[in-house]
Amino acid sequence: MKKTIILQMMLSISLVANVTLTPQKEKNWQIQTALAQEVTHVPLDEYMMRVTTPPKLLHTISVPYEAQVIQLNKANFESVNKGEVLGLLNSPQWIEAQKEAIATWVELSRSENEASRKSKLCKEGIIAQKECLIADAEVKTDKIKLLASETVLKSYGTSDEMIKILFKDLTIFPKIELRSAVKGVIVQTDIEVGKNISSSSALFTIKIDGEDWIESDLPQAIADKLKSSKEVIITIAGKEIKSKVLLLSPLLNPTNQTRYVRFSLPKEADLLVGLKTKATLSIQRKALLINKKAIVQDGQNTVVFIKEAQTYRTLKVDVIAENRQMCYLEYNAELKKPIAIGGTSILQNMLIQGKE
């Protein structure tokens, strides 16, 4: 035990010294150096991630009335344009709404004609002015009723052109055109030909264009290194995706001690919704990348050999991440000098033994 402590003390003390070598000795002992690569992002680890759709990109098509499906023009995963007809419906409520609208239109036409006739009589003094005022009030009332009827018709999806035809020809439309209010892709349907649908039932779910999310449940220690809006890089199958943190859950999952984290997913990433895959998460942090062969353990410290002219000296470093071949070091301007990556064991032995 005492010998071990003395040896560790010797290592810690001796490795603060320098060693100078001639070019020939460097060649003989195969001492090799390399420059550390400066990087802006540091990989944390590999985690399972999944691609999801933000709720704001999902638009539901429904109707505020009971109806029967007569015809369907679109199915799952087909593209639709705004205003495109998705299908045809039939509804007794729709028929009644048209009848009421026609009756209101007819009544307005009658009251307008009556008001016009009385206006002439009032000007000639044949009838009292009071009669004209009453007739004008009836016209205003009928116009309000017609406006209400038009609003009801539009709630069924009736276009302005259809309303004009309805009042012009006084002909009832037997079918309702169910149109898409947005442009996108149908991701879910709950509608069949011949099926009766209830009021406000979700008939079509359409995904509009926009950026999806990529989500993961990360260990608490990793989540603590992230902040909202912080830029990160997510690497999937060798492809780097520039992203940022959108949301960090304020709660810890008691089952697996993880936190839910949501990241942005640019459209150019071209990943399908529903994908579950392993991804490497890298955070924005200035660091230096060097071969792991450069790392030397000096007791409790981690050091590298810095070369200045023909002299090698040790420098304490902090390893913040690593993979099979490389490690990421806390940024230090001193580390931008040549670093020994070959023959480090020889340099270490020379320092311990006090030899050149």
Tags for this model:
single chain, alpha+beta, conserved putative lor/sdh protein from methanococcus maripaludis s2 fold, Elongation Factor Tu (Ef-tu), domain 3, OB fold (Dihydrolipoamide Acetyltransferase, E2P), six-stranded antiparallel beta barrel, 7 helices, 29% helix, disordered N terminus
Q: How many distinct folded domains?
A: 3
Mean pLDDT: 89
Tell me the radius of gyration: 39 Å
SSE arrangement, N to C: HEHEEEEEEHHHEEEEEHEEEEEEEEEEH
The CATH architecture name of the largest domain reads Beta Barrel
CATH fold name of the largest domain: OB fold (Dihydrolipoamide Acetyltransferase, E2P)
Strand line-up in the sheet with most strands = 3-12-15-14-13-16
CATH class of the largest domain: Mainly Beta
Ranges where pLDDT stays below 50 over 5 or more residues in a row are: 1-15
* Silhouette: rod-shaped
Question: How much helicity do the residues have?
Answer: 25-40%
Q: How many beta strands in the DSSP annotation? A: 22
Going by CATH, the homologous superfamily of the largest domain would be RNA polymerase II/Efflux pump adaptor protein, barrel-sandwich hybrid domain
Q: Give the class from helix and strand content and strand pairing.
A: alpha+beta
Percentage of β-strand residues: 35-45%
How widely separated are the two ends?
A: 30 Å
Query: How would you sum up the major sheet?
Result: 6 strands, antiparallel, barrel
